[in-house]
C-alpha cells in the first residue's frame, strides 16, 4: 500500500510539473492597459502601531482530524465498527444499541445555532439608545414638575407621557423591522440535510442525518449532500464539490487511498456540507455536529465582534452633540432664570424643560428609522434582503468590496467556450454567426463523445436539456449541456440508438475515460470514444481528423498547432479536454466481441485525434458591468478565492476587476527582470495564499496601495486576515460570499453580503445582507440606494434640526428679556412630531439630482495614503490609553473611572483638538456646513421671521414690545397677566392707551403663539425645497420631481390648521382660531428670503468648492457580460494536410 501511495504522489508531481512549465499565451489586450491616477507608488508614510499578537481563540479549535493517515482497518477499530473491504455493502456497521449509546454521549449531528438575544432584550437595547434616553429624561422631568406643583403643572402629565411614549414608539419601529428581517432570514435556513443512507447491523437503512453518530457507515451517492465528516474505505468514481468549504471550484476525486498529509487535501476524507457530484462511496463517520470541519469554521464566526455601522457611529456622535448642547443650555438658563423668576422652581424648571425639548428633535429617530425602512423595502423589491437597517446606508459607504469567485462572480457552472477541431478554433459563445459551431467540421464527433462517453444523469427528460437538473461533476455537466444544445431533440435518443458495450471511467491514473458503442461505420459496427487530459489523449493518437472527414497521420506541425491551442486555452484559465475516436475494424472487433478490463483487450494506441474543448466557469450576467460601475464609483473591488492564481486572474480580466499590468506583465513590457520593476510601474497584483501568513505590515501596505488586487488559494483564516487588515487601513469593507469558508469574513466585515440560492446557511446567518436571487449586479442597486439614502438622510436631518433655533430662541427670550412665552412645550412637541414628521419622511422618495452623479462621486470616506496616515496617527495617540495582556494579546478593558479619566485627559490634549480640526475629504452625516445652515443661517432667519410675526400679532392686539416685557415681568403684587382662569389677570393699560382685560390678554397671547407655530411651519416648507439640492439652485424641475413632497406639505398644513383653526384643539394647545390669514404673509416673505439665500449660498460654494468626480478608468468594458464570456475573436490556425 505504501508503494502505491508513493507512486500516486510521484504521478501528481509529474503532472503538476507539466502544467507548471506549459507555455502560456495571453491575449494582447491584457498587456498595456493601465488605469488613470494609479496609486501604485503611493503608500502611507505612517506605520501602523505595533500591538502584541493576539492568540486567536480559534487556535484551540484547529482541525484535529488525523484519521486520513490510518488504514481502513485501523479507522474501523478506532470507532468500534465492522467493515468489509471486499464488498462494502456487506459491512456490519454499528448495532442500534451502540448507536443509541453514542448518540446519548455525543449529542445530535447538528450545528449549534448561533446564540441569539431574547426579543425583549433586543427591544430594551433599542429603548436604551441615547436619543430615546433623552426623551425619557425629559418625560421624567415633567413628572418631577408635577410633584412640585400639581395644579399649575397638570398639563405636563400629557407632555411627559407623550415624550416617553415617543421614545418607546421609536424603539418599537426599529425593533419591529429587525425582527421582520430576522423572520425572513429564518425561513431560508435549514442547517442539516434531512435524510441519509446508513449501514447498521448489516442493513442499509435511511435515517435522519441528525441521528448519525461516529462509527456509523454511510452510503453516499451522486447528488447526496455529505451529512458528516467521513473516512472513505470504498469508492467508485467518487468526486466531491468542496467549494462550500474551500472555495475550490474543481470537483475533487476521493477514494480509499491517500497520499497527502494535509487533511484538506486527503483523498480519503469527505467533509460535512460538501456535495457528491459523481460516483458513490462508503465511509466511516469520524466527526459529527460542531466537531466537523464545517462546525469548526462556523464556530469562527462566533468569535468575531461585529463592528458598529458607519451610520450608527455618526448618529451616536450627533446625538452626543445635541444632548450636550441641550443639557448645558437648559442647565445654564435654569440658573439664569431662577433669580429672574423670583426663585420660582416650578416656573424655571418648566422653562428649562422647554429649552431641552426645543433642542432635541424628537421626531428624528423615527424619521431615520422609517427612511431606512422605506429604503430597505425598495431594496427587497430588488431581491436584496437587509437584516440590519443601517446596513442599507453602509453599502453606499463601502470603500472596498472583497468578493469570492465561485458562485458569486461566476455561475459555478462549467460552460464550453472554445472548440478546436480539424485545425480550426471556434468560439462556442458566439451564437450570431453565419455557420453555427455545431455545423463546423469535427463538431458532431465531439458532441457524440460528449453525449455517449458520459456518466451524467438527469432529474427528468421531458424538458429541454438547458432546463434540466444534471447530476454529475461540473465538467460533465458543461459537456452534456453543449451537446444537448447542439443535438436538440436527437440528444435523448442517441444512448439508445448507440448502446454502450464497454466503459473505463475516468481515474487519476489514466486521466481519460473510454467507452465503446454499437455505432456502425463503413468498416465495422463498433466505435471507441476517448476524452481526457490533452497530453494523455494525444499520446494515444497517431492520426488527426480533417474537415473533409478523412484522417491523416499526426505530424510535428499538427502537434505544434495542438500545443499552441492548448497553451492559449489554458492561459485563459480554462479547463481543457481532448477527444479521440477509433472506428474499430469488423475483422478484429466483431459486433459480439467481449472486452475485458483485466485482459486489456481494447485499443490503447492508433486513435484519431478529434479536437480540443475548453470549458470555463463563466462570469454571471451583469457581473462585469457591476464591477465596472463599482470601480467608477471609487470602490476598490478585489477577489478573494480558493482557486488557482492563473484561473482567478483570467476571470478577473474578463470582468473589469483587473485591467492593468501585474509585476510580471510590467517586466515583459519593460524587458527587464521582475525584481527591477519599480512599484509605480504596475497597478495590479495577484497574491498567493501561501504568502499571507508571512506578510509584514509593510507588505500589506504595498498590496492595498494597488488599484487591482486578487488573493488566490486562500483559506477561511486568510479571508478573515484580509478583512482585518483592510479595516485597519480605515477601509469600510463589504464582503460577498456563499460558502461556509466565507462566513467568518462576512461577520467581521462592515457589511457581509451572502447569496440566498447558492449560499450556505452559515454564511447567511453571518451576513448583514442577502442577495435573494444570487445576482451580484444587485449590489450596484444597493450601492446606489445606500448613497441615495445617505444624501436623503442628510437633507432630512438638515431640514429637521433647522426648526430648533426658532424654538430655542423664543424660549430664551421668554426668560432673559422676559417676553410672554412665544411657543409652549406642547407646541414644540407637535412641531417635531406633527408636520415636521410628515415633511421629513418625504425625503425618502427624493431621486438623485443627476442620473449618474451619485455613482461618479468618490465614497464619502475615501481611503488614500493621507487618510490612512491620519487614522494611524489617531491610533498611535490613543495607544497611551490602551493596556494589553501580553500573555493572550487581548486588550484589557478599563474600569468606568479609568474610561472617564482617559476621556477627560484626551479632551484636554492639544493633539485631540488638532486632529478634530484637521482637514479631511470625509463627508459625515452631520458636518459643520449642515450645523451652520441649521443653527447659524436658516435657523436664525426662521427665528427672526417667527418673532417678527409674533410682535406684529401682539401689536395688532394692542400690545407693543414694551408692553409685552412689562406684562411678563409683572408688578410688585401678582398680576397673573395673560391668565384667564382659574386665576384671572388684572387689567392692563398698554402704551397705546388700550385697556386689556384678562380675556383680551389671553386671546392676544393665543394668537401670538399660533402665528409663531404657523410661521415655523410655513418657513420650514420653503426650507424643505431649499434643502433638496446640493449641487444646483433650488429652482426648477427637480423641485417637483418628488410628488410626495406636496403630500407631506398638505398633511403637515392640515395638522397645523387643525391645531390653530379648530376651536376644540385651541384648549390643550393654547392656540386661537381668530388668527387672521393676513399674518401668514410675513412667514411667506421670509420663506422666499430663505430660497434666495439658498441660491446665493450654492452659487458661492460652486465657485469656491466645486464638486470633484472620480477620474475615468481606461480599459473598463461596460458592454453586457453575456456577449463576452470568451474573447470575441475567432482564431483560425493554418490548415495542414
Outline of the structure:
The chain is α+β, with helices and mostly antiparallel strands and 1137 residues long.
Question: How does this structure look, described?
Answer:
- The protein is α+β, with helices and mostly antiparallel strands and 1137 residues long.
- It is 44% helix and 13% strand.
- The protein has 37 helices and 30 strands.
- Strands 10, 11, 14, 15, 16, 17, 18, 19 and 20 form a 9-stranded mixed β-sheet that branches.
- A hairpin with a 5-residue loop joins strand 17 and strand 18 (551-553).
- Helix 5 (130-148) packs antiparallel against helix 6 (156-186) and helix 6 packs parallel to helix 11.
- The protein is elongated.
- Residues 1-41, 56-61 and 1122-1137 have low confidence and may be disordered.
Q: Can you give keywords for this protein?
A:
1137 residues, alpha+beta, nine-stranded mixed sheet, eight-stranded mixed sheet, 37 helices, 30 strands, 13% strand, elongated, disordered N terminus, disordered C terminus
Structure summary, number of beta strands = 30
Radius of gyration: 37 Å
- Counting H and I runs of at least 4 residues, what is the number of helices? 37
Poorly predicted parts: 1-41, 56-61, 1122-1137
Q: Main β-sheet, in a few words?
A: 9 strands, mixed
**Spatial shape:** elongated
**Roughly how many Å apart are the termini?**
48 Å
Average pLDDT, rounded to a whole number, is: 82
Q: Strand pairing plus helix content: what structural class?
A: alpha+beta
Q: Please give the share of residues in helix.
A: 40-55%
Strand content: 5-15%
Amino acid at each position: 500500500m505504501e508503494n502505491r501511495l508513493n507512486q500516486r504522489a510521484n504521478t501528481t508531481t509529474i503532472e503538476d510539473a507539466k502544467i507548471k512549465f506549459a507555455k502560456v499565451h495571453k491575449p494582447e489586450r491584457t498587456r498595456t492597459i493601465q488605469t488613470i491616477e494609479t496609486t501604485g507608488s503611493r503608500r502611507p508614510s505612517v506605520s501602523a502601531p505595533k500591538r502584541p499578537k493576539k492568540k486567536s481563540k480559534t487556535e484551540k479549535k484547529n482541525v484535529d482530524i488525523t484519521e486520513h493517515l490510518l488504514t481502513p482497518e485501523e479507522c474501523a477499530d478506532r470507532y468500534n465498527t465492522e467493515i468489509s473491504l471486499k464488498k462494502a455493502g456487506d459491512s456490519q456497521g454499528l448495532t442500534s444499541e451502540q448507536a443509541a449509546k453514542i448518540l446519548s454521549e455525543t449529542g445530535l449531528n447538528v450545528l449549534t445555532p448561533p446564540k441569539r438575544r431574547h426579543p425583549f432584550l433586543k427591544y430594551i437595547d433599542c429603548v436604551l439608545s441615547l436619543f430615546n434616553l433623552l426623551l425619557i429624561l425629559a418625560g421624567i422631568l415633567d413628572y418631577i414638575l408635577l410633584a412640585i406643583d400639581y395644579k399649575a403643572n397638570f398639563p405636563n402629565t400629557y407632555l411627559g407621557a407623550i415624550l416617553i411614549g415617543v421614545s418607546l414608539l421609536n424603539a418599537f419601529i426599529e425593533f419591529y423591522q429587525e425582527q421582520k428581517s430576522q423572520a425572513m432570514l429564518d425561513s431560508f435556513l435549514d442547517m442539516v440535510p434531512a435524510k441519509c443512507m446508513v449501514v447498521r447491523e448489516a442493513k442499509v437503512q435511511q435515517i435522519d442525518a441528525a441521528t448519525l453518530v461516529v462509527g456509523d457507515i454511510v452510503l453516499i451517492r451522486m447528488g447526496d449532500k455529505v451529512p458528516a465528516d467521513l473516512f472513505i474505505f470504498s469508492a467508485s468514481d467518487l468526486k466531491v464539490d468542496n467549494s462550500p468549504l474551500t472555495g475550490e471550484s474543481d470537483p475533487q476525486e476521493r477514494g480509499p487511498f491517500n497520499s497527502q498529509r494535509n487533511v484538506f487535501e486527503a483523498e480519503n476524507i469527505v467533509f460535512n456540507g460538501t456535495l457528491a457530484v459523481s460516483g458513490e462511496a462508503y465511509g466511516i463517520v469520524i466527526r459529527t455536529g460542531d466537531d466537523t470541519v464545517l462546525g469548526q469554521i462556523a464556530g469562527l464566526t462566533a468569535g468575531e465582534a461585529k463592528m458598529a455601522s458607519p451610520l450608527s457611529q455618526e448618529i451616536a456622535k450627533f446625538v452626543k452633540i445635541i444632548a450636550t448642547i441641550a443639557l448645558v443650555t437648559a442647565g445654564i438658563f435654569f440658573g439664569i432664570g431662577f433669580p429672574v423668576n423670583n426663585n420660582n422652581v416650578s416656573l424655571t424648571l418648566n422653562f428649562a424643560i422647554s429649552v431641552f425639548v426645543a433642542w432635541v428633535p424628537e421626531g428624528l429617530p423615527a424619521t431615520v428609522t422609517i427612511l431606512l425602512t422605506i429604503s430597505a423595502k425598495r431594496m427587497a423589491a430588488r431581491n436584496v434582503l437587509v437584516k440590519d437597517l443601517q446596513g442599507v446606508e453602509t453599502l453606499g459607504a463601502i470603500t472596498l468590496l472583497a468578493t469570492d469567485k465561485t458562485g458569486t462572480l461566476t455561475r459555478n457552472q462549467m460552460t464550453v467556450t472554445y472548440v478546436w477541431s480539424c485545425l480550426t478554433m471556434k468560439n462556442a459563445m458566439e451564437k450570431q454567426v453565419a455557420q453555427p459551431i455545431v455545423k463546423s467540421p469535427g463538431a458532431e464527433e465531439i458532441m457524440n463523445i460528449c453525449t455517449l462517453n458520459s456518466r451524467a444523469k438527469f432529474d427528468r427528460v421531458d424538458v429541454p436539456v438547458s432546463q434540466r437538473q444534471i447530476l454529475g461533476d461540473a465538467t460533465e455537466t458543461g459537456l452534456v449541456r453543449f451537446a444537448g444544445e447542439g443535438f436538440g431533440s436527437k440528444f435523448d435518443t442517441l444512448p439508445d440508438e448507440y448502446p454502450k458495450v464497454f466503459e473505463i471511467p475516468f481515474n487519476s491514473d489514466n486521466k481519460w475515460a473510454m467507452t465503446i458503442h454499437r455505432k456502425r461505420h463503413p468498416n465495422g459496427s463498433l466505435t471507441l470514444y476517448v476524452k481526457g487530459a490533452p497530453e494523455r489523449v494525444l499520446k494515444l493518437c497517431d492520426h488527426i481528423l480533417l474537415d473533409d472527414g478523412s484522417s491523416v497521420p499526426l505530424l510535428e506541425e499538427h502537434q505544434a498547432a495542438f500545443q499552441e491551442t492548448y497553451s492559449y486555452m489554458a492561459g485563459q484559465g480554462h479547463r481543457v479536454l481532448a477527444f479521440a475516436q477509433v472506428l474499430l475494424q469488423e475483422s478484429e472487433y466483431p459486433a459480439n466481441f467481449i472486452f475485458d478490463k483485466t485482459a486489456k483487450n481494447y485499443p490503447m494506441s492508433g486513435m484519431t485525434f478529434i479536437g480540443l474543448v475548453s470549458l470555463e466557469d463563466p462570469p454571471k450576467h451583469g457581473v462585469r458591468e457591476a464591477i465596472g460601475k463599482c470601480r467608477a464609483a471609487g470602490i476598490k473591488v478585489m477577489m478573494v478565492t480558493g482557486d488557482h492564481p492563473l484561473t482567478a486572474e483570467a476571470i478577473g480580466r474578463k470582468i473589469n476587476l483587473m485591467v492593468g499590468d501585474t509585476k510580471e506583465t510590467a517586466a515583459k513590457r519593460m524587458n527587464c527582470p521582475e525584481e527591477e520593476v519599480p512599484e509605480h510601474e504596475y497597478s495590479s497584483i495577484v497574491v498567493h495564499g501561501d504568502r499571507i501568513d508571512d506578510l509584514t505590515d509593510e507588505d500589506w501596505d504595498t498590496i492595498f496601495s494597488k488599484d487591482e488586487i486578487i488573493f488566490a488559494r486562500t483559506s477561511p483564516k486568510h479571508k478573515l486576515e484580509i478583512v482585518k487588515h483592510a479595516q485597519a487601513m480605515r477601509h469600510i469593507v463589504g464582503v460577498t460570499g456563499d460558502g461556509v469558508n466565507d462566513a467568518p469574513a462576512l461577520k467581521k466585515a462592515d457589511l457581509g453580503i451572502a447569496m440566498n440560492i447558492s449560499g450556505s446557511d452559515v454564511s447567511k446567518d453571518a451576513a448583514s445582507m442577502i442577495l435573494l436571487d444570487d445576482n451580484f449586479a444587485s449590489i450596484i442597486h444597493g450601492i446606489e440606494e445606500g448613497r441615495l439614502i445617505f444624501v436623503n438622510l442628510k437633507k432630512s436631518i438638515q431640514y429637521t434640526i433647522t426648526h430648533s433655533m426658532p424654538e430655542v430662541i423664543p424660549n430664551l427670550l421668554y426668560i432673559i428679556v422676559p417676553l410672554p412665552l412665544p411657543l409652549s412645550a406642547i407646541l414644540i412637541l407637535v412641531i417635531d412630531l406633527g408636520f415636521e414628521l410628515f415633511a421629513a419622511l418625504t425625503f425618502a422618495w427624493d431621486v438623485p439630482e443627476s442620473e449618474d452623479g451619485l455613482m461618479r462621486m468618490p465614497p464619502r470616506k475615501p481611503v488614500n495614503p493621507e487618510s490612512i496616515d491620519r487614522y494611524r496617527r489617531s491610533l498611535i495617540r490613543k495607544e497611551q490609553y490602551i493596556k494589553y495582556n501580553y500573555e493572550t494579546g487581548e486588550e484589557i478593558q478599563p474600569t468606568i473611572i479609568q474610561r472617564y479619566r482617559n476621556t477627560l485627559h484626551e479632551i484636554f490634549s492639544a493633539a485631540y483638538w488638532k486632529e478634530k480640526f484637521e482637514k479631511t475629504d470625509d463627508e459625515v452625516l452631520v458636518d459643520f456646513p449642515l450645523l451652520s445652515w441649521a443653527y447659524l443661517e436658516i435657523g436664525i432667519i426662521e427665528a427672526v421671521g417667527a418673532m417678527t410675526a409674533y410682535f406684529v400679532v401682539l401689536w395688532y392686539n394692542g400690545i407693543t414690545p414694551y408692553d409685552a416685557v412689562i406684562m411678563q415681568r409683572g408688578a410688585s403684587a401678582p398680576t397673573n397677566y395673560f391668565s384667564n382662569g382659574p386665576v384671572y389677570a388684572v387689567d392692563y393699560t398698554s402704551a397705546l392707551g388700550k385697556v386689556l382685560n384678562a380675556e383680551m390678554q389671553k386671546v392676544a397671547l393665543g394668537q401670538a403663539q399660533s402665528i409663531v407655530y404657523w410661521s415655523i411651519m410655513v418657513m420650514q416648507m420653503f426650507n424643505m425645497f431649499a434643502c433638496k439640492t446640493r449641487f444646483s439652485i433650488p429652482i426648477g424641475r427637480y423641485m417637483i420631481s418628488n410628488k410626495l413632497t406636496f403630500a407631506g406639505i398638505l398633511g403637515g398644513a392640515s395638522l397645523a390648521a387643525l391645531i390653530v383653526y379648530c376651536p376644540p384643539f385651541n384648549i390643550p394647545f393654547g392656540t386661537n382660531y381668530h388668527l387672521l390669514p393676513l399674518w401668514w404673509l410675513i412667514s411667506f416673505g421670509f420663506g422666499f428670503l430663505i430660497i434666495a439665500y439658498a441660491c446665493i449660498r450654492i452659487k458661492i460654494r460652486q465657485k469656491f468648492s466645486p464638486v470633484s468626480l472620480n477620474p475615468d478608468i481606461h480599459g473598463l468594458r461596460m458592454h453586457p457580460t453575456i456577449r463576452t464570456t470568451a474573447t470575441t475573436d475567432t482564431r483560425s490556425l493554418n490548415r495542414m494536410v
